[in-house]
Specification:
With 123 residues, the chain is an all-alpha fold. It is 72% helix and 0% strand. It has one domain (7-121): Globin-like, CATH 1.10.490.10.
């Protein structure tokens, strides 16, 4: 199994990850009812790929405020621990099924850090 190496690998992860998220009734409503992200997935994948490229490979380009976007969602419908847990589990399992290495581990660690900070800030 290879490590995450480029934007195409990130896009592969995001597409498989969102397949899992949208199939999970405990969290899918955030994408289908709260944000309608499920209607604009290809555009959303490009934004996510830019975010993760910056996070993993130090490539510039992501300029959105990720925390504010999620805080705004939290104010519409509160994120609970089980939502963060589902999100993290789906992401980790998606990565582990396809990739192994430094960047794969870094992506999971960064996701855990972001989820932890959000849970603290959104209380």
């Amino acid at each position: 199994m290879k490590d995450i190496e480029n934007r195409e690998d990130i896009l592969l992860i995001m597409k498989a990850f969102y397949d899992r998220l949208l199939a999970d009734k405990s969290i899918s409503f955030y994408f289908s009812k709260i944000t309608n992200t499920d209607q604009h997935l290809e555009h959303h994948f490009e934004i996510l790929a830019t975010f993760w490229e910056q996070s993993l490979f130090m490539k510039g380009g992501y300029s959105n405020n990720m925390f504010q976007i999620h805080k705004d969602l939290h104010e519409k419908h509160s994120f609970k621990k089980e939502h963060f847990d589902a999100w993290l589990n789906h992401l980790s399992e998606t990565i582990d099924c396809r990739f192994k290495g430094k960047h794969a581990e870094e992506m999971k660690t960064n996701a855990l850090s972001m989820a932890t900070i959000m849970q603290i800030k959104f209380q």
